[in-house]
Amino acid sequence: MSCQDIKLEVCVDSIRSAFAAEDGGAARIELCSALGEGGLTPSVGTLKVLKDSFTLPIFCMLRPRRGTDFVYDDKELSAVLTDMDLLRANGADGFVFGSLNPDRSINVDHCRQVMLHSDGLPVTFHRAFDLTDQKFMHENVQLLKELGFKRILSSGFRPSAAAGADFLAQMIAKHHREIIIMPGAGIKVPNLEEILTTTRCREFHASAMDTASEDYVAPTTTRMECDVTMGKQDIDPYYGTNPNVVRKMVTIASAMSC
User: Fold this and answer.
1) Element (H, E) at 96
2) Rounded Cα gap, residues 257 and 26, in angstroms
3) Side-chain-facing half-sphere of 31: CA atoms under 13 Å
4) What is the pLDDT of residues 38-78, one digit of tens each?
5) Would you state the pLDDT for residue 57?
6) Prediction pTM value
7) Using CA atoms, how far apart are residues 181 and 201, in angstroms rounded to an integer?
């Protein structure tokens, strides 16, 4: 591989987390809503506020609902394309998208429509990739490259990037000159060095939250003591990106960059 820095993309779902990622030295953010649901399309308002003073590239998630199937009907895809137009018009620097067929193959038609609507902005194929058949991983990487995707976010067909590191390493070794394979899912400060060593990736993806160490920060929303809740996630505190965790990850990645 050519000599270059290893970049950290931080996934965030709030303005406060976005600035924490910037403060910690991230290279880019993936802007979502509802990270507790795996990340959904963010609001235009959040993007517009960030674009006023934020310095990092902002890639916006395109995911119209929760669920692990990533099988969208025509109306859902229409919503995705409408969101793209609005987000692009308000400063999105790139997009993150994935769509599958019921047999877990990549939905080529949906991907082509998204690429056309991207108007030349870079698009990442997200972890829907990890639901595809790993036996065809190289063919699917090649397909996404031919469709115009610039990177693939993947945990290597496993629940975490640490568990899927060997598959990630295989894809990176074969395809790194053509498309970026970006490990993500469960990447923490303690396992980062091993993941970087095994995969030899040039970019990685993390939420950079930490709730049980010396980097502990208070939840980013106030818990209201009452019997009324707004959803099942109310039972847990809402934590955001921790700039100290971002900083530690960036330091590790910088030390391992050639």
Assistant:
1) strand 94-97
2) 15
3) 30
4) 999 999 999 999 999 999 999 999 999 998 889 999 999 99
5) 98
6) 0.90
7) 7
- Give the pLDDT confidence score for residue 250 in this predicted structure: 97
Long-range contacts for 38-47 (Cβ within 8 Å, ≥24 apart)? 38/63, 38/66, 38/68, 39/11, 39/13, 39/63, 40/64, 40/65, 40/66, 41/80, 41/83, 41/87, 42/13, 42/87, 44/86, 44/87, 44/90, 46/14, 46/15, 47/87, 47/90, 47/91, 47/92
Helices (H), 90-205: 108-117, 137-147, 165-175, 189-199
Running DSSP on this structure, what letter comes out for residue 100?
B
Q: What is the pLDDT of residues 180-229, one digit of tens each?
A: 999 999 999 999 999 999 999 999 999 998 765 545 555 555 555 555 55
- Give CA–CA dist 244/20, Å, rounded: 9
- DSSP symbols for 125-155: E-GGGGGS-GGGHHHHHHHHHHHT--EEEE-
